[in-house]
Amino acid sequence: MEKVVENSTAFLARRYPPLVEEKIKNRYRVRCNNSDSRLSVSQLTEQARGCEVLFVSVTESLPRSVFDALSDTLRVVATLSVGVDHIDLGAAKEYGVKVLHSPDVLSDACAEVGMMLMLNAARRGHEADRMVRSGRWTGWGPTQLLGKELTGKKLGILGMGRIGQAFAERARAFKMVIHYHNRHRLDPSLECGAIYHETVDSLLVKSEFFSINAPGSDSLKGFLNQEKIQLLPKGAVVINISRGDVVDDDALIQALKNGHLFSAGLDVFKGEPDIDPRYAELENIYLSPHIGSATTETRNAMGFMLIDGLDELKSGQRPTNCII
Ligand code: DGY
Predict the structure, then answer these.
(1) Cβ distance 284 to 259 under 8 Å?
(2) What is the whole-number distance in angstroms between the Cα of residue 241 and the centre of ligand 1?
(3) Catalytic amino acids?
(4) Residue having the nearest C-alpha atom to atom 1 of ligand 1
(5) What is the best residue among 100, 108, 110 to mutate for testing ligand 1's pocket, by most ligand atoms within 8 Å of CB?
(6) Closest residue to atom 6 of ligand 1, CA basis
(7) Are strands 53-56 and 154-158 parallel, antiparallel or unpaired?
(8) In CA terms, which of 8, 36, 95, 175 is 20 to 30 Å from 289?
(9) What is the number of the ligand 1 atom nearest to the C-alpha of 216?
(10) What are the D-isomer specific 2-hydroxyacid dehydrogenase NAD-binding domain coordinates in residue numbering (predicted)?
(11) What tens digit of pLDDT does each residue of 283-298 get?
(12) Is pLDDT above 60 for 3?
């Protein structure tokens, strides 16, 4: 892309992994948010003024006002995430700002966290850990910490993209039977025996375990509400590695309290990190602080993918990770 020239100025809204920052610094004049804390929209707008390339992550919101304010110089937004729901893509497009994200390379890491949530929620891993640490463990017991077995259970996956497929592959190794709903049915060669449901409701009715793996979007906000939860079989387990606002917190908490759900495992939350405090009071929920892609290998790969994408833009190519 001809407008991003060598020695452009880049603003790093968060500290990226050291190897990634090193590469960025070899290519751009870099200004950083050295505090590495989440910047508000006005702080971001102020600190990023004059930059051509803006490196962000899921913690930064980029509404239209950011593009209005930075459009004189801003050419590319690069986000260290697969999700782009924090960016006003319509505004970016209007101003001719390219948006790069980092899909694919994080699918395995996210699928691993999906398994971590599912195993802990089903086998009560967090409760077991607390029992041992607190000294409350009085020894093996025939009815102690009885959980729910994954083997042979139906796992319903909402969103069978790259992360959904990686998750299904792992769940299959645990002998789960995979059902899914997706905007489009997968090619049979990718289904690997998974059963497609044309409607989410028909998927919910079957799901002894239900995992939300679809990308966050306006249309999914509040999707898992009381009505949808009631469609799940009694004793189901809910997993969320998508976005927190897909879940109606009141409805989920009520279903965990009244026993309609056995348990839940969440890696994402509405308004994170300020999560609904009632979650912390429940035993039957495993809570994880949005670490889906948090491995050194994956975060490096995500960063390198953004840099490669920028290099391609510079040489006039269209990178595969360019959303607009
Ligand atoms: C993403 O990439 O969208 C994740 O939520 C961040 O780990």
Answers:
(1) no
(2) 9
(3) 243, 272, 290
(4) 81
(5) 110
(6) 81
(7) unpaired
(8) 175
(9) 3
(10) 115-292
(11) 999 999 999 999 999 9
(12) no
Residue 224 DSSP label:
B
83 Cα–ligand 1 center, Å: 6
Mean pLDDT for 242-264 is: 98
Q: What is the pLDDT of residues 86-125, one digit of tens each?
A: 999 999 999 999 999 999 999 999 999 999 999 999 999 9
Confidence check: pLDDT of 147 > 80 = yes
For atom 3 of ligand 1, which residue has the closest CA? 83
Give the whole-angstrom CA distance, residue 107 versus residue 115: 12
Does 321 have pLDDT greater than 70? yes
Identify the bridge partners of residue 139 per DSSP, sorted by sequence position: none
pLDDT category of residue 169 using cuts at 50, 70 and 90? very high
Q: Please list the residues that pair with 154 across neighbouring strands.
A: 177
CA-angle at 291, arms to 270 and 201, nearest 5°: 55
Average pLDDT over residues 70-89: 98
In this chain, the answer to whether the domains covering 9-101+296-315 and 107-287 adopt an identical fold is yes
Mean pLDDT of 120-148: 98
Each domain of the chain, given as residue ranges in start order, spans 9-101+296-315, 107-287
The closest-lying atom of ligand 1 relative to the alpha carbon of residue 83 is 3
Residues with CB under 6 A from ligand 1: 58, 81-83, 106, 292-293
* pLDDT value for 278: 98
Mean pLDDT, the chain, whole residue set: 97
How does residue 5 score in pLDDT terms, banded at 50, 70 and 90?
Answer: low
Q: Which atom of ligand 1 is nearest to the CA of 110?
A: 7
How far is ligand 1, taken at its centre, from the CA of residue 107, in Å? 10
CATH number belonging to the domain at 9-101+296-315, selected among 3.30.360.10, 3.40.50.720, 3.50.40.10, 3.40.50.360 = 3.40.50.720
Work out the burial of residue 217: count CB atoms within 10 Å of its CB; fewer than 13 is exposed, 13-18 middle, 19 or more buried. Answer: middle
Considering the domain delimited by 107-287, tell me its CATH architecture.
Answer: 3-Layer(aba) Sandwich (3.40)
